[in-house]
Amino acid sequence: MIFGLFRKDPRRTRIALLYKRIATASREPGLFARLQIPDTLEGRFESLSLHMVLMLRALRTMPAPADEVAKDLTDAFFRDMDASLREMGVGDTVVPKRMKKIASSFYGRAHAYDGPLDGADEAALAAALGRNVYESEAPAVPLARYALAADYGLKQADLDAVLDAGPVFPRPEAFAEEGSR
């Protein structure tokens, strides 16, 4: 019985790999260089949150056990956020308060992006992304186009493909417009 504690859980390993692939996609240099997401702690959180929202939306459209994958993926995201806070030196007594703020921010963004993504409303999505990612009232049109394309593409994949090969996100450079967001 004790040896069961040392065995790797294949499901947890697959979720960790899926989360790593999403996190890697959220750090694609073109997002920062061409789509002008600020290369700051906040900008990286915004990029990761956007990519997580897009993946979770796709999982909602897939058959079971996609709902369990979504739950496990969300848990992995918040474990990573918790570990990141601790790595940055945030004290144990402050971490729960910060995690509550991170969760509120994440779910607020998911809610703000959901409607425009559902309706393929580029203008509304660009406005929401502009406010959250760039802290500006200027719409983030290229980033909205990227997100709409990613949302569409992810919903075309099946769960096995996503778990085996990882999610496929478009190349950010394809959506960059010179001199604008």
UniProtKB/TrEMBL annotation:
Name of the protein described by the UniProt record: Cytochrome b pre-mRNA-processing protein 3
The family this protein is said to belong to: Belongs to the UPF0174 family.
Domain Ubiquinol-cytochrome c chaperone: 34-169
Domain of life of the organism encoding this protein: Bacteria
InterPro entries (UniProt xref): Ubiq_cyt_c_chap, Ubiqinol_cyt_c_chaperone_CPB3, Ubq_cyt-c_CBP3-rel
